[in-house]
Design goal:
Elements: H1 6-13, H2 25-28, H3 39-56, H4 62-68, H5 73-101, H6 103-122, H7 127-155, H8 159-186, H9 192-211, H10 228-232, H11 236-258, H12 260-263, H13 267-295, H14 298-318, H15 323-350, H16 356-384, H17 389-407, H18 422-433
Length: 434
């Protein structure tokens, strides 16, 4: 399949990324290192690490919160649901907001909200308040995450593929460090992880305020319509990928949010287990996924990785009474998830000529909503049947995602093209900024 025309690239590049400098043509003609990035990229990447820590931060302290706040497992799982549901719904309007107030302001508002609601969660006295403040945290997370990806793609050296790998590495590190920090601080008090996140996000706020250059106060020349993310879901490629991600995230978050209960470890044990999961996710995001995409079509990689994840989830259900088996299943799941996260994100960016921020907002909204329903569904299934049922349900959802990707393969053909050169990327960005 041929690559999109330059006009298609230019249209896709015309997003609220006026904070990013235009790539150096000398650098664009060479082979820049993934690690040789502008300081503003590292500032946003650091904040991404902390933002994604919030996903797994509460994982090791779920049993402790249930005990200390006299809550049921399903009530504690709502800490994930409120966070992910608000994150997903807010994703649908973040491109509308960021295209009017600028990327930098959107990032800073998102970070400020996370700091405020993490602090409020830390001083809460009941589980209902923590659930509510996690929802506010999710709003800040949505403003930050959707804008951060577009900002990194626009500012990073080495083209969009290198930028997405860097973003997914930040995601992997955040998901890895989140449970570890949550376990270490949670062994002292369940409030500790919330205070820790607020402090780190405050550092990220200052870093972006100081290092991210650009006219953040101006309104973008071409504001994105409010309806754009909703209309994007009508594109066949985005619809296929969003439906796939919805089902796949059910498996993702059942593995993440439900496993601490049958695993039976304390906060530190759970933290180290999911630290291994996150490290595996980061390794395959950064090294394995790019190697695979150089050799195989992206939809083919997704169609193979999804059944592997389904088998892993089903095995976790069959062997749910073995702590060793569950730990192994968690780590293997992280390795597969790293490949899926990176390849799905790249496919979303390349499958249409939509602006990147619109494509990522639409896709991420549906993806997070799928994650939101998974944790309480898992505990309800465990209560109604047995501890293995949530994993079997998760495996079935991932197999359904495989069917969606196979049936919608034709719509994803534009994502099969070879990555454009860094020089072409620079020209497209320059034309889009003009």
């Amino acid at each position: 399949m041929t690559a999109p025309t330059r006009s298609g690239r230019a249209a896709r590049s015309a997003v609220p990324q006026n904070t990013a400098p235009r790539p150096d043509p000398k650098e664009a003609t060479g082979h820049p290192s993934l690690l040789r990035q502008p300081r503003q990229v590292w500032a946003v990447a650091f904040a991404c690490v902390v933002a994604f820590m919030g996903i797994g931060l509460v994982d090791p302290i779920l049993p402790t919160i249930a005990a200390d706040l006299d809550a049921t497992p399903t009530e504690t799982e709502l800490l994930f649901t409120s966070y992910l549901l608000v994150t997903g719904l807010a994703m649908l309007v973040t491109s509308f907001i960021s295209s009017r107030i600028g990327a930098k302001k959107t990032l800073l508002i998102g970070l400020a909200l996370i700091v405020a609601f993490a602090l409020l969660a830390a001083i809460s006295g009941n589980v209902e308040a923590v659930i509510g403040f996690r929802a506010g945290w999710g709003l800040g997370n949505a403003l930050f995450i959707s804008t951060a990806l577009a900002t990194i793609v626009g500012a990073a050296s080495g083209g969009s593929s290198a930028a997405i790998v860097l973003y997914e590495a930040a995601l992997g590190l955040g998901i890895a460090i989140g449970p570890l920090l949550g376990g270490l601080l949670g062994s002292i008090s369940w409030r500790g992880p919330f205070f820790g996140t607020a402090a780190l996000m405050a550092v990220g706020f200052v870093a972006i305020l100081v290092l991210l250059r650009g006219d953040a106060a101006s309104t973008h020349a071409s504001p994105i319509p409010f309806s754009a993310p909703f209309r994007a879901l009508g594109r066949p490629a985005i619809a296929v990928l969003a439906a796939t991600a919805f089902l796949y995230n059910i498996g993702f978050f059942i593995l993440l949010a439900y496993t601490p209960f049958p695993l039976g470890f304390g906060a530190i044990g759970i933290g180290f287990t999911f630290f291994g999961w996150g490290v595996g996710l980061a390794i395959t995001s950064v090294w394995v996924a790019p190697l695979l995409t150089r050799r195989f079509a992206r939809p083919s990689i997704i169609a193979v990785a999804l059944p592997v994840l389904a088998v892993d989830l089903i095995a976790a259900g069959v062997l749910v009474d073995s702590q060793v088996a569950l730990v192994v299943a968690v780590v293997i799941g992280g390795l597969v998830l790293g490949v899926l996260n990176t390849v799905l994100t790249e496919t979303v960016m390349e499958a249409t000529d939509l602006p990147r921020v619109v494509a990522s907002s639409s896709y991420s909204a549906v993806r997070f909503i799928g994650g939101a329903i998974a944790p309480p569904t898992a505990t309800l299934l465990a209560d109604a049947f047995d501890a293995a049922t949530p994993y079997l349900f998760a495996g079935g959802a991932v197999l359904a995602a495989t069917a969606v990707i196979l049936l919608g393969r034709r719509a994803l053909m534009p994502a099969d093209h070879a990555p454009e050169s860094a020089l072409e990327e620079a020209r497209a960005i320059s034309l889009g900024d003009a």
